[in-house]
Write a structure and sequence with these properties.
Layout (H helix, E strand, L loop, with lengths): L28 H36 L1 H4 L21 H27 L6 H16 L8 H13 L9 H6 L3 H5 L13 H14 L3 H26 L4 H12 L2 H9 L4 H14 L5 E3 L13 E3 L7 H17 L6 H8 L4 H22 L1 H5 L24 H22 L10 H14 L12 H6 L4 H17 L10 H32 L8 H4 L2
Antiparallel strand pairs: 1-2
Amino acid sequence: MTEISTAGTGAGSMPSSDAGYATPRPSARPRRDTAGRSRATRALAWSAAIGIGTAILIMIAASAARNSWSSVHTAVPAAGPPWQLSLRVSVSTAIPALWAAALVGAGGVIAGLAAVRRGARLPVRALLAVGLVATAALTVLPPAGSTDSLDYAAYGRMAVLRRSPYVMTPDQLRRTGDPVGRAAPAAWGKDVSLYGPLATAEELGAAELGGTSAARIVFWLKLWNALAFGAVALALDRLLRCDPSRRARAHLLWTVNPLLLWALIAGAHVDGLAAAAGFLGLIVVGGAGLTRSAGPAGSAGPVPPARLSRPAPPGWRQALASGVLIGAAADIKITFAIFGLGVAWACRRSILSLAAAAAGAVAVLVPSYLWYGYPAVTALSARSDYATADSYYRWLAWPGPHPLSNLLLPVAAFAALAALLLWRLPGAVPALPAIQPALALGLAWLFVASYQLPWYDAMILPLLAIYPASRLDWLVLARLAAGTVALMPGNPLLPTVRPMRSVAAANLELIVPLVLLGALIALVWCAVSGSWGMRPGTDRTLS
């Protein structure tokens, strides 16, 4: 009998059972494929780190040198905060750098999400730490990315002077010679406040602390926004603590997302506070979090998949707390009232809980609106019949307000898309029953409303971070990136430098509307076809 030597055979090779025949060596292709996949995953993870880090550093530098390139100058007090650095950056440098930051930052987030989906274990604590440090840095710098915060400062100053920001305008405050009124930009000078009484209370508090310095008032607004932003980050970290991949994904979408940091922290938009209150209100009625399923005793195998514990029906105390938080979100910005429908769905099996949630919301909303009266109510519908400059509704050729035509189409589109998403969007987070309906309604409103700005997406990003990974991630990020680039550097007017002005105009009037319309079409296709791109078994794993 011929002896067959197995020396030198690779792992997985077997000797032949037939004498005189050598066993063919198995192909090494699977091993090479695995190595290649691992290298690609590492490349994605490093691309995410470089892209996100570069974008954040550019945004911090632009904020620190804001007065050297912004067309709206804001005097910084001699003793901060806020502080500014003695950097001199020209407009022709700042604008392309910020455009690049938005694109590189969005690319970094996308690369990170792809790496996590391929099995990368990103350092979650490092993501959380980087996000919180970046938030703190942007908080203590002058406002950048938008001039809206200077309008907020003017509204707060009016409240300090016992004037109603729902009656008085920034132009009227400016004509009194008030220093905060003089700092308000002219873009919305003839408009009263569009926000709810709780937003006015926040602005009043900031104005009391900031005195006659618009920059100091905005600092306090940014500080409270930063606290709200951090609260959402910590809540996401806590809820997803037992699933490292989903925990990392949540921080990529929210905590270290440069687009959100620019809009909510650098720009100090009030949407950050409303998003935090609304998100916390939605999770209060579930709040189970992820828990590990038990594996075999003593098993040395991989960690079993995470499971969401089954929630008990929300009690009336949970529902009351949820109603108060949702009422607070709507009292800051009325569009967050649609989250109330998510809470109603979660409480639908208990009349007591449903009544408690409604009572909590009413207890916040009614007294505050009674305090400011009818002008605060009428302000809610301001600009509802306008389309933003980058909206695809502009292609329907309405340059100004025409209530009948401008409202009917968006309202009808919202109703149709909301019904479709409520029906077709998977209920993939059963332990948090208010998330799915709130996400469906938020997506419908954001994707079809005629008046949209990128920081409005703060409404749905915490909900998306709780949801399993799907094609929704790419659609929401594409919209957010396109809208952010279109409005950079954040002044109310297009850049004055001619080459950049042409690029900005083309982006605002053609490229961004195409992206927004494409995202809408893709969302409808996902809903109709059911092709959400969730991995097979995702719903079962989370049930």
